[in-house]
C-alpha cells in the first residue's frame, strides 16, 4: 500500500463533494507535516471562495479515521499527519516482504535497453560511462519491477574504418593477437597509415568492399578484431560491475543482412526519395533551419548503408522478432535529432504500432574542472579502465585512513567497490539531462549525497547487527519523532522505484536513498538501539534492518555494491 495514494483516495471524495466534480488532491510529502495537499488553493479561485474555508470543509468531510489527522495551515494548505499505528503497520508489512513493498508489475513488458555501445578497436573511454552506468541501472530496475529486459549492446562493429583496421592487421603479419593488446595504439597506427599512404588507403577501401561482400579471409580477420575488442569491453564491464555479458553483444553488423529489406519495405510504402544521389526518408514535421524537409539518409549515394539504416533495422527487429513493447536508447543528447527522425520514420513505416514506445533516454556530458569535456592533462581521451583504477586507489587510501585494521586484500576489494560506486553514484545523482563536472573530492566525500556516504551508512547498520548478539528485529512500534520520520521514508521506497521505472530519472532514487540515510542518522543519534529495553530495542532493530535492506536494494538497482565493512 502506498500512503500517498491512500491519502489521495480519502481526500478525493471530500474535495469532489465540495467542488461538485473531480479534484486531484495532489498529496505530496512535505516539510511541514508528513504530507500536504495544496488543492484547496486553485479550487478556491475556481469557486470564488476563501481557500481556508474550502480546506476546513474538506477536513470536516474527509473520512480519515485511523489513517491521518488533517489540519488547515497557512493560506489554505491541508497538513496531514499519518496515524502512528498505520505507519507502524505499514512498516511491518514492508519488513515482512522480501520485495520491500514493491509487488511485481501486473503489466510486464518486454523492454529492450540499448546501452553502452562502444566502437570496436577502440578502448572504452569516459564518453561511454554515462550510457553504460545509466543503462545498467535502467536494466536492473526494470527487471526488478518484473519486466522482461533485453540488454542490447549496439557495438559499432561495422563500416568503413574496418577497411584500414583489417589492412593494418594484415601488414603486421601473423603476430598472434599481441598487436591488439593496446587497441588505441593499434587504431592510431592504422589511422596514421591511412592518412599518409595513398596505396594503403586504396587497399583499405578494397577491404571494405571485401568485408561487405563476405570474403572469408576478410571476415576471419574482422572476427579477430571483434573478439579482441569484446574481451576488452567485458573486462571493463567486470571492473565497473555492469551486468552486460557476451550474450548481449548485438552490434551493427548483426543487422547487416536486414538492411536491403529495410530499404525495400520503406520503398514499398512510398517513404523514400532520391536526394543528392542518396535514398532518403523525409518524415512529416521535420524541417531544418532553412525550412527544408529534413532527410534521414537510408542508403548513401555510394550504395552503402549508414548508421540510420542500421538503427531502423534494429528497431524493426526489436519489435517484430524480440517482441519489444518498450525500447530505450541510452545515448547522449547530441543524437537527439537522429533518434527523433528514426522513430518518426519507423512510425510512418508501421514498425512502431500503438502500445509500443521508443524513448531516447538522453544525457549530458561529463566535464572537467575547466567546464569543458573531461580530458587528460595532455588533452587526450580519458580511458575508462584507468579512471576506474584511479578511483580504486583513491578509495583504498581513504578506507585505510578510516579503518586501519583492514587487511590489504580487504582494503583492495573495498577500495574497488567504493571507488567504482563513487563514480557511478556521482553520475546517477546528477540529473541526466544536464552536464556535470567530474570531481574526485566531491564524489569520494564521506558526507553528503555521495556513494561512499550511502555505503558507509549501510556498513554502519551491519556493524550494529554484528554487536547485537542474540537480539533480533521484532515488530515496529513508533513512539519517538525520529522513528516516525525514518518509518515514513521507508514506506516511500516502492512508489519511488515505480516512478523511476517510468521517468528513468535516477537522481530521484539517489536523492531518496540519501534522504533515507539522513533520516537513519538522525534516528540513530537520538534513539539508542542496543542499550534500549528489549521491546524498544527489537522495534528499533527492525527499523535498522529494514533501512539496511532498503539501502542495499536501492543501491543494487543502481548497480552499486554494499560491502558489510568499510
Ligand atoms: N556506437 C554509437 C556511438 O558511439 C552509439 C550507438 C547507440 N545506439 C544506437 N542504437 N544507435 O555513438
Describe this structure in words.
This protein is an alpha/beta fold. The chain is built from 20 helices and 13 strands. It has helices at 3-19, 40-47, 51-61, 84-95, 129-145, 161-172, 183-196, 198-212, 216-240, 259-268, 307-320, 336-348, 384-402, 408-428, 440-443, 451-466, 481-490, 493-503, 506-526, 534-557; strands spanning 27-29, 35-37, 68-73, 77-82, 110-114, 148-152, 272-275, 278-281, 296-299, 326-330, 357-361, 366-367, 436-437. A 4-stranded antiparallel beta sheet has the order 1-2-4-3. A 4-stranded parallel beta sheet has the order 6-5-10-11, sandwiched between helices. α5 links the parallel β5 and β6 (148-152). The two termini are 35 Å apart. Bound molecules: arginine. Arginine binds at residues 114, 117, 119, 154, 156, 311, 314, 329, 331. The site of arginine (ARG) has 9 residues, from α11.
CATH fold description of the domain at 110-155 and 251-361: Rossmann fold
Spatial extent as radius of gyration: 28 Å
The CATH top-level class label of the domain at 110-155 and 251-361:
Alpha Beta
CATH superfamily of the domain at 110-155 and 251-361: HUPs
CATH architecture label of the domain at 110-155 and 251-361 = 3-Layer(aba) Sandwich
Identify every distinct bound molecule in the structure, by name, code or SMILES.
arginine
Amino acid at each position: 500500500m502506498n500512503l500517498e495514494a491512500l491519502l489521495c483516495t480519502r481526500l478525493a471524495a471530500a474535495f469532489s463533494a465540495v467542488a461538485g466534480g473531480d479534484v486531484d488532491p495532489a498529496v505530496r510529502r512535505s516539510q511541514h507535516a508528513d504530507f500536504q495537499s495544496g488543492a484547496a488553493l486553485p479550487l478556491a479561485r475556481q469557486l470564488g471562495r476563501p481557500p481556508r474555508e474550502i480546506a476546513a470543509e474538506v477536513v470536516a468531510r474527509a473520512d480519515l479515521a485511523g489513517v491521518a489527522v488533517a489540519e488547515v495551515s497557512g493560506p489554505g494548505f491541508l497538513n496531514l499527519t499519518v496515524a502512528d499505528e498505520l505507519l507502524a503497520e505499514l512498516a511491518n508489512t514492508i519488513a515482512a516482504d522480501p520485495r520491500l513493498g514493491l509487488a511485481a508489475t501486473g503489466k510486464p513488458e518486454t523492454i529492450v535497453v540499448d546501452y553502452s555501445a562502444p566502437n570496436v578497436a577502440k578502448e572504452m573511454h569516459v564518453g561511454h560511462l554515462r550510457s553504460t552506468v545509466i543503462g545498467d541501472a535502467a536494466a536492473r530496475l526494470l527487471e526488478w519491477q518484473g519486466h522482461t529486459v533485453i540488454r542490447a549492446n549496439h557495438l559499432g562493429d561495422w563500416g568503413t574504418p574496418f577497411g584500414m583496421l583489417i589492412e593494418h592487421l594484415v601488414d603486421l603479419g601473423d603476430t598472434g593477437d599481441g598487436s591488439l593488446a593496446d587497441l588505441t595504439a593499434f587504431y592510431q597506427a592504422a589511422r596514421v597509415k591511412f592518412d599518409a599512404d595513398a596505396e594503403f588507403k586504396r587497399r583499405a577501401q578494397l577491404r571494405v568492399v571485401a568485408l561487405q561482400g563476405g570474403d572469408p579471409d576478410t571476415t576471419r580477420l574482422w572476427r579477430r578484431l571483434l573478439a579482441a575488442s569484446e574481451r576488452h569491453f567485458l573486462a571493463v564491464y567486470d571492473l565497473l560491475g555492469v551486468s552486460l555479458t557476451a550474450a548481449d553483444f548485438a552490434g551493427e553488423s548483426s543487422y547487416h543482412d536486414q538492411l536491403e529489406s529495410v530499404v525495400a519495405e520503406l520503398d514499398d510504402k512510398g517513404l523514400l526519395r532520391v536526394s543528392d544521389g542518396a535514398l532518403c526518408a523525409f518524415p512529416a514535421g521535420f524541417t531544418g533551419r532553412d525550412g527544408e524537409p529534413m532527410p534521414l539518409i537510408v542508403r548513401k549515394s555510394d550504395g552503402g548503408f549508414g548508421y540510420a539504416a542500421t538503427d531502423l533495422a534494429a528497431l524493426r527487429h526489436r519489435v517484430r522478432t524480440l517482441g519489444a513493447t518498450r525500447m530505450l536508447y541510452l545515448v547522449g543528447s547530441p543524437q537527439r535529432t537522429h533518434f527523433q527522425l528514426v522513430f518518426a520514420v519507423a512510425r510512418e513505416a508501421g514498425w512502431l504500432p500503438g502500445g509500443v514506445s521508443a524513448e531516447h533516454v538522453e544525457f549530458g556530458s561529463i566535464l572537467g574542472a575547466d567546464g569543458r569535456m573531461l580530458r587528460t592533462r595532455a588533452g587526450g581521451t580519458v580511458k575508462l579502465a584507468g579512471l576506474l583504477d584511479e578511483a580504486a586507489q583513491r578509495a583504498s587510501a581513504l578506507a585505510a585512513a578510516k579503518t586501519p585494521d583492514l587487511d590489504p586484500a580487504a582494503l583492495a576489494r573495498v577500495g574497488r567497490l567504493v571507488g567504482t560506486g563513487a563514480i557511478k553514484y556521482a553520475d546517477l545523482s546528477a540529473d541526466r539531462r544536464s552536464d556535470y563536472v567530474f570531481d574526485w573530492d566531491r564524489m569520494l566525500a564521506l558526507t553528503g549525497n555521495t556513494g561512499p556516504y550511502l555505503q558507509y551508512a549501510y556498513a554502519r547498520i551491519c556493524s550494529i547487527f554484528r554487536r547485537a548478539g542474540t537480539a533480533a528485529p521484532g515488530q515496529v512500534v513508533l513512539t519517538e519523532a525520529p522513528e516516525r520520520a525514518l518509518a515514513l521514508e521507508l514506506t516511500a521506497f516502492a512508489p519511488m522505484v515505480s516512478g523511476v521505472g517510468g521517468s528513468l530519472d535516477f537522481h530521484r532514487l539517489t536523492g531518496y536513498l540519501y534522504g533515507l540515510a539522513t533520516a537513519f542518522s538522525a534516528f540513530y543519534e537520538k534513539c539508542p538501539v542496543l542499550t534500549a529495553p528489549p521491546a524498544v530495542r527489537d522495534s528499533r532493530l527492525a527499523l535498522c534492518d529494514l533501512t539496511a535492506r532498503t539501502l542495499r536494494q536501492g543501491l543494487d538497482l543502481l548497480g552499486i555494491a554494499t560491502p558489510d565493512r568499510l
